[in-house]
Design a protein that fits this description.
366 residues; alpha/beta; TIM Barrel; 2 domains; four-stranded antiparallel β-sheet; 11 helices; elongated
Length: 366
């Protein structure tokens, strides 16, 4: 499935006109999915008016062409006149998908995927429980079923990365579509008023939005990445829209002295050899492409650490122009064959783990 990007909106906290502008901007940049919620204000003052505001904006988003998701549970479904047994009003509202936040019986969930309105159903992926297995026992229409992780407004409550990956497995084995969240560093509208940064994974909370999205997309386990809070700035919207969603891409700042030809090698399309070594990621096709070019030795380091990017210089005629990403700390260059090019930033070192055998990767020089 094509990987998509999306936004969240909270119309009860804004005006229709402001939401309209935000949706128009996002649509123009290639965003395709809109997430919103009703459940977080059920039982509050003016809940019916708030629900009307949400549904008006959802309708507009649908008219633009967005795929629309509304987070609900039983009480919020009652508020807008739908139920687990009758989702027909969703077509009138412009709702493509209901995200069922609170637990329902597996048989009910499977049954509702057969609804005549053809509304999709989304489940919470973040609990790592057997709900999805039990739902699948009751033969749902699988292409109307998907998973979406939670977002976590409160600092230190986001999922650990390894646990996140465990949660994904339960949905991936059924080939279901998956979604997860990143956080704007500016949007103050959320389901938890007063919080910012609404990521799924804790370790990405304070990263630039592009780097948050890379961690999610490059697992190759998340199909849709959405901002969890609103409004993301124009710059943040553009930043996420510009992320390569498929090829692992490192932002690399070259050290002083890197030559033009070395920069050309960095910009080559690389892949990790299949017969791997544990000491570095080895990309060898550049030595074929640039075999006739000159790579004089420069004063570099004697020891390298994880994330350092190097090129083999003229000291080794056979292997010159190979690019290596060092994987071990205190890795010694005993004969001075390396020219040091730069170091992958701490905030992108997680991405190194995604460069598995035969995986293509790129550098974006910043």
């Amino acid at each position: 499935m094509k990987k998509r990007i999306g936004i969240s909106i909270f119309p009860e906290q804004s005006s229709f006109e402001e939401d309209q502008k935000y949706l128009d901007k996002a649509w123009s940049l290639g965003y395709e999915v809109v997430f919103t919620s009703i459940l977080h204000f059920v039982g509050s003052e003016n809940e019916k008016e708030k629900a009307k505001k949400v549904l008006r904006v959802v309708k507009y988003a649908k008219e633009l062409g967005f795929y629309t998701i509304v987070d609900v549970e039983y009480k919020s479904m009652d508020l807008i006149g739908i139920s687990i047994n009758d989702a027909s009003k969703c077509n009138e509202y412009g709702i493509d998908c209901l995200r069922l936040d609170s637990p329902s019986l597996p048989a009910e969930i499977a049954f509702v995927t057969h609804n005549k309105a053809k509304v999709d159903i989304q489940l919470n992926m973040s609990n790592n429980d057997s709900l999805i297995d039990n739902v699948m026992d009751f033969k749902p229409i699988a292409n109307r079923l998907s998973g979406c992780h939670n977002f976590y407004p409160l600092e230190f409550t986001g999922l650990p990365f390894d646990y996140f990956m465990e949660c994904n497995k339960r949905y991936l084995k059924y080939r279901l579509n998956t979604s997860a969240f990143i956080g704007s560093h500016h949007g103050v509208m959320t389901s938890a008023v007063g919080q910012k940064e609404l990521p799924t994974i804790e370790e990405i909370r304070y990263l630039p939005v592009s780097q948050q999205a890379k961690v999610l997309f490059y697992t190759d386990e998340i199909d849709t990445v959405l901002f969890g809070n609103a409004y993301a700035t124009d710059e943040e919207l553009k930043e996420l829209a510009s992320v390569d969603r498929d090829e692992v891409t490192f932002d690399l700042k070259c050290v002083e002295g890197v030559t033009d030809i070395e920069k050309q090698v960095l910009l080559f399309d690389h892949y990790r050899r299949g017969d791997i070594t544990e000491y570095f990621i080895r990309a060898t096709q550049s030595r074929v492409k640039f075999k006739n070019d000159d790579f004089p030795a420069r004063k570099s380091k004697s020891f390298y650490n994880r994330g350092d990017v190097v090129i083999i210089n003229n000291s080794d005629k056979k292997y010159k122009a190979e690019i290596h990403i060092i994987l071990e700390d205190n890795f010694a260059d005993k004969i001075g064959k390396y020219n040091y090019l730069g170091t992958i930033s701490e905030s992108e070192k997680r991405l190194i783990d995604f460069v598995v055998p035969w995986k293509q990767f790129r550098f974006n020089l910043v």
